[in-house]
Each structure stands twice: as structure tokens, then as C-alpha cells.
Amino acid sequence: MIEYDEFGPEKIFEVYNPKVGMRGFLVIDNIALGPGKGGVRMTPSVDKEEVFRLARTMTWKNAMAELPFGGAKGGIIADPKTFDLKRKKLIVEAYAKALKVVCPSMYVSAPDMNTGEKEMEWFAKANGSMKSCTGKPKKLGGIPHELGSTGFGVYHSALVAIEHMGWKPGEITFAVEGFGNVGSFVAKFLTEKGAKLVATSDSKGVIYSKEGLDFKKLSKIKEETGAVTNYPGSIKSSCESILDVEADVLVTAAIPDLVTFANVNRVRVKLVVEGSNIAMTPEIEKVLHDKGILVVPDFVANAGGVISSYVEYIHGTPEKMFRLVEQKVRKNTDLVLKTAKKDAVLPRDAAMKIAQERVRKKMK
């Protein structure tokens, strides 16, 4: 259900082009800090409520990262696995043209699920402005996605949380839900820091090894076979069983609503870092909090991607991006966790208070 409050949503668009079979949504939640910023996802199940939840998350994420962007999100109802690139190109172009009335003046797009650099090139050219989106190819001024800005930020957020728990990175075990564009980079950086990766997953299932998974070997197998489940010698199980893994830390990096009331009691870690958006509801976070499990909220932990988008937006360099991601994510994770401890509240409540105050100041 879409909730209307003092912050928004300010505009909700439904767009449709019967000639190419494009149907989509755009939610501009709040633009007090600047044009709404948020990617466009392409899935067969995306709906207005999901897009709103993500747009609201972007409002807080941009406020927490202290960026001159508001919150927004886009969605196209389509399964890209069922059609070729030509059809996908037509759909993205139709979506971009339909949004010209507000993009880039009130909305700046970016990649999300099933969209990437190629789609952003189509989007920008169809829209007619290079300012209409970030995440473009390098030849159009983009910062390459393969640099892993979001995962780099989640990694630094995890490091701060690990320190907050009184642990050392080289002494902890961790699991990553989703060995993809975000999760693989988190796994890379944490293993390089000495942490032991004991489990990970993709759409094919979960692999687990108490002795630890070799990151380089795992990456090669994923690249060559398309599935982490081909990693030899590991225990294999269904996707949701990532919640059953015994480890110190769980990094979520894939699907929304991974943890629900139906499975929350299966979580066996002591720290959850939300690398994915809306990995669970605030109510579920409260359940985990009451069980003594610390949860770093999504809009705090995974702000690296939108910080990178900002650097691209102002024509900055990859070097500037890495510096800014590390600086902002570490600063805000530390601020949120210390505030939560001082005020005896959930990290999300502490983060929400900080973000809302920043937005309210601009709304006056």
C-alpha cells in the first residue's frame, strides 16, 4: 500500500505504449534536496507499491549520503529473458520518451534489476539528454559499473559495523545472499581483508563450506558456468536456506523481502548488513533487534551506488568516486550506529531521524 505523508510521494506516473508492449511506472517521492534519483528495474512482477517503497528508500538514502538528489524510482513490467535485445531496446526507449516531461528536470534515472550500461545508453539517447540518467557507458561519460561502487560501499559499512561489534575482520565468518553485481564485490573486499566467506547464493541455489570458499575460484566458476552451485565440494541447498547459515555476518545483496515473518526465526547470524534494497520490513528488523541481531539499514549500507551516480553526474573520476563512497558510507554508518546505541533505538530509527531532519530543513 502506498502511504501518503508530509514527504510524498509527490508524483506517480503510469506509462504505456501498446505498439512496443511497454508498461511502466515512475514514482517521484520527494525533490526537496534536488531532482529525484533512482534506477529503473525491469521485472515481470514490479508494481506501483514496490516502486514507491524503493523511491521512499531513495529519499532517505540520498539524504543520508548528503547528496543534492531527492528520491525516485522507476519500473517496467517485463521479463527481459523472454525477448531479444531489439525488443528490450524498443521498450527502454519508449519508457524514456514517455518520461521526458519530468526527466531530467525532476527525475534522473539509473540502472537497477535487469538494466545496465547498455539500457542507460538507450535511455539517454531516447530522452535526448545525457543528464537524464547515470550508469551510462564510459564512452558517454559514465563510471564503469564493473568498478563495484555499491559493493565497495557495503563493504565499508560492514567494516564499521564489525568494528562496532568489537570484532576484527580477520576473525569473522560471513555469508552473502546474491553473488551478483553487489554481493560479489562485497565478498571480494571482505575476503581480501581476511574474513572467511562460508556461504553465498544466486538464483540457482546456495553453497556452503565451513572451511570457507575460495573467492577467486568461486568467481571463475560463476563466470564460466553461470552458477555458484557448481563450486566443487560445497554443500548445496535452496536459495532461502542462506538464512540457515551459521556465520557472524549476513550480507543481503539480491531480492527484496528476503527475511519475512515466516522465516525470521531461521536467521542465525549476529549482524545483518543490508546491501540490497528493502531486504525486510522495519517490523522484521525489530524482531531481529529483539533477538540481539544488529541490522544496518539498506539506505545507509548500500549508498555507494548513488554516490557513484552523483560523481558521474558532476563529471567526476573513478578515483573521486571511491574516495567519496568510502568517506560518506563510513561516516554515516558510524553516525547511525553510535546514535542508535546512545538513544537505545533501532539503527533504522536513528537513520530515519537523521535523514528526515535533513529533508525537512529543505522543505521549509
How would you describe what is shown here?
By secondary structure, the protein is α/β, with parallel strands linked by helices. It has two domains: 11-60 and 71-135, Rossmann fold (3-Layer(aba) Sandwich); 149-304 and 332-352, NAD(P)-binding Rossmann-like Domain (Rossmann fold), CATH 3.40.50.720. Helices cover 40% and strands 17% of the residues. It contains eleven helices and 13 strands. The protein has helices at 48-64, 85-98, 117-127, 149-164, 183-192, 215-225, 282-290, 298-301, 304-313, 318-343, 347-363, and strands spanning 11-17, 22-30, 36-37, 40-43, 70-77, 107-108, 173-177, 196-202, 205-208, 235-237, 249-252, 271-274, 294-296. Strands 10-9-8-7-11-12-13 form a seven-stranded mixed beta sheet. Strands 1, 2, 3, 4, 5 and 6 form a six-stranded mixed beta sheet that branches. Helix 1 links the parallel strand 4 and strand 5 (70-77). The longest helix has 26 residues, at 318-343. The two termini are 27 Å apart. The model has no long low-confidence stretch (mean pLDDT 96).
Helix/strand order: EEEEHEHEHHEHEEHEEEHEHHHH
As residue ranges, the low-confidence spans are none
Mean pLDDT across all residues, rounded? Answer: 96
| Beta content | 15-25%
Number of separate strands: 13
Q: Strand arrangement, largest sheet?
A: 10-9-8-7-11-12-13
* Helix percent band: 25-40%
Assembly level: single chain
CATH topology of the largest domain: Rossmann fold
Which CATH-level-2 architecture of the largest domain?
3-Layer(aba) Sandwich
What structural category arises from helix and sheet content?
alpha/beta
How many separate helices? 11
